Amino acid sequence: MEIEIMGEDETLLEPLKQKLLEDENVEIATYLMGHPMLEKPVLIVRVKSGKPQAALKKAAKALANDFEEFKNVVVKETTPKDK
After folding, report:
1. In this structure, are residues 1 and 45 in contact, taking their beta carbons and an 8 Å threshold?
2. Residue segments in the chain with a per-residue pLDDT below the cut of 50
3. Tag placement on the chain: N or C end, fewer CB within 10 Å?
4. Is 43 helix (H, G, I), strand (E, B) or coil?
5. Kindly report the CA angle at 65 between 42 and 36, in degrees rounded to 5?
6. Per the domain annotation, does 45 fall within a domain?
7. Whole-angstrom Cα distance, residue 80 to residue 46?
8. Whole-model pTM above 0.70?
9. Number of domains in the chain
């Protein structure tokens, strides 16, 4: 599967690629970045079996959970404590 990702860059694509590669069923996960003013990044996913869309949804959900956990830690650690 090749999919153009509009309005995003390595900030999203690199963690998403890494999360995809954690899946044993994912054979290839990479992205291509052309000139930022002329081309949209392209995410490439190949799986051993099943649909690459399912692997992408699973990875995106796991990444969203990771970011939610990180946000909760940051909020907890930066909230003033009552004395």
Report:
1. yes
2. none
3. C
4. strand
5. 25
6. yes
7. 46
8. yes
9. 1
